[in-house]
UniProtKB/TrEMBL annotation:
Chain segments annotated as transmembrane: 15-33
PANTHER family found in the cross-reference section: METHYLTRANSFERASE, SAM-DEPENDENT METHYLTRANSFERASE
Region of interest called Disordered, as start-end residue ranges on this chain: 65-88, 613-634
InterPro entries: Put_SAM_MeTrfase (IPR004159), SAM-dependent_MTases_sf (IPR029063)
Name this polypeptide is given: Methyltransferase
Length: 634
């Protein structure tokens, strides 16, 4: 179709009317979904799945032409030309078995037991690898459990989680005295307690705040090791502090799943044998509340890993054994000699790291990392190899000390929220190739334009509708900074395949994130993100792994009725759009905000609401059988 450049400005072609009707249908459905109440699902599912407004309209197709884009005019070569032969129907991905509702591919419990227990290796990531990996990947859609409902909005979600979303009661019994979680009929209630703070996290944080300056904005990012249900992070949020919490998938069933259902940043992980997926100098504080990590073992390796990710001037908080062992050894059922020796080793390694012990408050010990180079570090302390400080993905942890950062690279940060928009020290020092202060600020302006265009399609982007957000290819955090709100948080992922390692910049802005390889599954439970954003992610991985595998992983971690926003080349997005037609997503393609002639487009998608129960019901209705065993790895 040729452009109508000479026609009357008031003329309307039949195609334009079709386009207008298609867009009206999409916005009607999107509006119905956004206005739906929390803790529901049926009303939203009816609007999206049954397409009530568009069921009799032939223009309601999710093709690119129906979305108003004429690729054959602007981008010759796309596969939407009406004169071409009709393509084969897209692959329809079946539902997985209901038993796989909590499937975590790289943290499979059966596979974990085949690995050594030393240094918690068996609790680390173990993804399907080798030639048979493709055969062991699920080629199905992980279902939501029967009765799944939309989580409560923040901050109500901090205290209440629908029972149907994570129907596991073991922690209500195991941790009853410590006030982790209580079962109250249709919901779990989280009183805010923890192993070391049964009276609640607020009271505990108040005690820490007598030493750690939470209120000044200088402590913004916190690493919580062995986090339980992440109540520390949940209650730090109201003080303008964001915590990255992690715990293994172990006998404490669903602890990380509960954290994410509450709307608290968390991932499945352990301090074991490989480095944490963060760059040096990421956190203002690290915390362990009876996290069962042997800090004095392995030559101080775990304390040295904390030192690696802790900023100069940052705090390390150790709560529980062996602190104040003289008063607690009987309650901990350990000998005085054992506890005294453990604390002695911790004190010695802290001295090697030049951490100053600030105080002990009952069972809480607080150390601070020096801001200046250590003048009297022991000669026997081994320095780490500085070949590439950011290369940590699947790299073995070492019992070594990282030398101070180069001049300017670890410069002083402004207090939050000023650091969100200030030029980060890594940019100012030239530590990120290709970035200057000027180009960094232009990058931020570019994301302001992008997000302004997003909001024209989805006006709920900066509201309580989205709490858990992921950016799959975060760059310097432009998207997260632009949509920043106390109502939401963003997991900024910097792919290991990215040309530049920019995660350090993300942390210097007061944001959080981690490294990840999108050829593998993410370290989280299914249904943990409300919105997933991806900029150029499929171009980045087009020669590395299958597009379908990445999309299936996105579907796994996206909540029912969650949103996806993808920016990429038009040819790639057309393939994505075609693939997700078989994944129960509804899509809309949109032009670049600057010009329809730009090859970069934006694909908006909404995942339909469905559960294992509805799938079984439909299966029985159609075939007289159930979906049990579908997609199972067994």
């Amino acid at each position: 179709m040729a452009n109508n450049k000479g026609g009357s400005p008031g003329a309307r072609s039949p195609l334009s009317l079709v386009v207008a009707m298609a867009l009206c249908c999409f916005f009607y459905l999107l509006g119905a979904w956004q206005r739906s109440g929390y803790g529901k699902g049926d009303a939203i599912a009816a609007a999206i799945n049954h397409q009530a407004a568009c069921s009799d309209n032939p223009s309601s197709s999710s093709s690119s032409t129906a979305a108003g884009l004429t690729f054959e005019t602007h981008h010759g070569g796309a596969s939407t030309n009406a004169s071409s032969s009709s393509p084969a129907p897209p692959e329809i991905f079946p539902a997985c078995a209901a038993s796989l509702a909590d499937h975590t591919p790289c943290h499979d419990q059966d596979r974990a037991m085949k690995f050594p227990r030393k240094n918690m290796v068996y609790r680390e990531r173990h993804c399907p690898t080798g030639a048979a990996a493709g055969d062991r990947r699920l080629r199905c859609l992980v279902p939501a459990p029967a009765g799944y409902v939309t989580p409560f909005p923040w901050p109500k979600s901090r205290d209440y989680v629908p029972f149907a979303n994570a129907p596991y009661k073991s922690l209500t019994v195991e941790k009853a005295v410590q006030n982790w979680v209580q079962y109250e009929g249709a919901v779990f209630r989280f009183p805010g307690g923890g192993t070391q703070f049964p009276k609640g996290a607020d009271e505990y944080i108040d005690r820490l705040a007598t030493v750690v300056p939470f209120n000044s904005g200088h402590v913004r990012t916190v690493l919580d090791t062995g986090c339980g249900v992440a109540s520390l992070g949940a209650y730090l949020d109201s003080r303008g502090v964001i915590a990255m919490s992690f715990a293994p998938r172990d006998s404490h069933e669903a602890q990380v799943q509960f954290a994410l259902e509450r709307g608290v940043p968390a991932f499945i992980g352990v301090l074991g044998s490989i480095k944490l997926p963060f760059p040096p100098r990421s956190f203002d504080m690290a915390h362990c509340s009876r996290c069962l990590i042997p800090w004095g073992a392995n030559g101080g390796m775990y304390m040295m890993e904390i030192d690696r990710v802790l900023r100069p001037g940052g705090y390390w908080v150790l709560s529980g054994p062996p602190i104040n062992w003289k008063a607690n050894h009987k309650a901990w059922e350990r000998t005085e000699a054992d506890l005294a020796a453990e604390q002695q080793r911790i004190e010695e390694y802290a001295a090697v790291l030049c951490w100053e012990k600030v105080t002990e408050i009952n069972e809480i010990g607080i150390w601070r990392k020096r801001s200046e180079p250590c003048p009297d570090r022991p000669a026997e302390a081994r320095a780490c190899d500085e070949a590439n400080q950011d290369d940590v993905w699947y790299k073995n942890m070492e019992a070594c000390i990282r030398p101070p950062a180069g001049a300017g690279a670890g410069g002083e940060l402004q207090p939050f929220p000023a650091r969100l928009t200030a030029v980060p020290p890594r940019i100012m020092s030239g530590s990120v190739p290709g970035f200057t202060a000027e180009s960094y600020e232009e990058e931020n302006r570019r994301w302001e334009r992008h997000v302004a265009a997003y909001k024209k399609v989805n006006y709920k982007l900066n509201t309580e509708r989205y709490r858990n957000i992921m950016d799959m290819n975060a760059g310097v955090g432009g998207f997260a900074a632009t949509i920043f709100s106390p109502k939401a948080w963003v997991m900024n992922v910097v792919p290991t395949a990215a040309e530049l390692s920019t995660l350090g910049v993300v942390y210097e802005r007061g944001l959080i994130g981690m490294y990840h390889d999108w050829c593998e599954a993410f370290s989280t439970y299914p249904r943990t993100y409300d919105l997933i954003h991806g900029n150029g992610i499929f171009t980045l991985y087009k020669d590395r792994c299958k597009m379908e595998d990445i999309l299936l992983e996105m579907d796994r971690i996206l909540r029912p009725e969650g949103t996806v926003i993808l920016r990429d080349d038009v040819e790639i997005l057309l393939k994505v759009q075609r693939t997700v037609q078989g994944m129960r997503w509804k899509t809309l393609m949109a032009n670049h905000e600057d010009s329809p002639h730009i090859r970069e487009k934006v694909l908006y998608a909404v995942k339909r609401y469905w559960t294992a129960a509805s799938e079984d019901s439909e299966e029985q209705k159609n075939t007289g059988s159930t979906s049990e065993g579908k997609g199972s790895e067994e």
